[in-house]
Amino acid sequence: MTRPASDASAGGSPAAAVGAPRVLVVVAESGILHSVRQWAPELEARIEFAPDLPHAARQLSQGGWDAVVCALGDRPEDDLAWWVDAVRGVPGTPRLIAFVERPSMGLAIRAEQLGVPDLLPLPMRRDDLANALKRARTVESEAPMPLPEVGAVPDGQYALVGRSPEMLEVYKLIARVAPSTATVLIQGESGTGKEVVARAIHEQGPKATGPFVAVNCAAIPENLLESELFGHEKGAFTGAVTRKPGRFELARAGTLFLDEIADMSLALQAKILRAVQEREIERVGGTETLPVEVRLIAATNRDLKEAIAQNRFREDLYYRLAVVPIRLPRLADRGDDLLLLTAYFARQFAERYRKAIRSISDRALELLRSHPWVGNVRELRNVVERAVIVATGATIQAEHLPDELRAAEATLPEAGTRGLLTLAEVEARHIARVLAHTNGQIGAAAEILGIHRNTLTRKMKEYGL
Predict the structure, then answer these.
(1) What pLDDT digit, counting tens, does each position of 408-443 carry?
(2) At 32, which CATH number?
(3) 406 and 427: one domain?
(4) Which neighbouring-strand residues pair with 244?
């Protein structure tokens, strides 16, 4: 922990812009003080100095701080814990930026556990301090928005989430086709949830008590896929030392889901066609005909009509599979479903990792909405899981998102300095802050805002809060 030094004195930096973050730099080393004073005009912050802990304690008690910069001493873990407790007692809980002479993995892990993402090496470098203060400004300007309550269809690991018109059409098709045993073809980009839809059809259909057997046709080598699907007899080929049932048999009285069906060869497509058409199969190397008592659901991320035109997919198989076609929309086309899915995954992973995630900042949500989501819902799920893991508080913030999403932040209006906002932007941000203050209680928020709760509910829907 920093100690008094004869050549250090309290004092402030040159005047900074009104509204710039107020930062307390607590260091005893004259070299660091001199450097920070030199950098102050470029740091875009109102910097004040404390030469020792007694001075720091008095200044912190005044409140109004956005960040505290300290240098850890010979017992860095103890010093870090002390500083975390110290800033927690300061109104507004300023962000702690800690510098240490000998960083280590253990200390970095401890810093993350204590909620200190800014652990930086000594000697202090201007860019390190500037970037840390920039992160502090961004976090300070982010308004927490309560995550909405989300209902999933069906409940469980494989859940359908969304209220967009595109997804409502998907729900209608599921409801219509599920009670039958008709073959279904699900088409959509990678990560849109094709297997989730297949499981929903199975679980709501007449074969729900039977097994759901999924096969990724693209993940199994072509020379093994036939045996995997139809099984083989003992001695059918080298290494076939016993009889093995295939996935068609294992899915008996249930559902067989063939994912990425466009990736199999034309020869194997012909055998799938016979199985669908005749409702029977033969094991590889066998002569016995076995009845097929399964519901077949196929899926692909390719355009099968184009594949047919290029002689890469059998037209007769396409029409056998596409008795009921379902096309899943891209995440980018699902509008406010993005927020609902984020809330659903955030709560799912918060429970798994024992985190108290209750909100997402407006800045983080902007970044999510501006991302192209090439990987669709699967990519969003991974991003939210990562954010929950690295989050240190109850709010997912922009700094918790992966680098590839935060790289787009430069194209967004600068946080805290957006200049002329529209009236809608101002109103949305204020409502978000009030809802965060009331922990999402609409009645209490409406009372603070001085409007009827029905008006607030309408505005929340209008602004996607």
Answers:
(1) 665 555 544 444 456 666 677 677 767 766 667 788
(2) 3.40.50.2300
(3) no
(4) 232
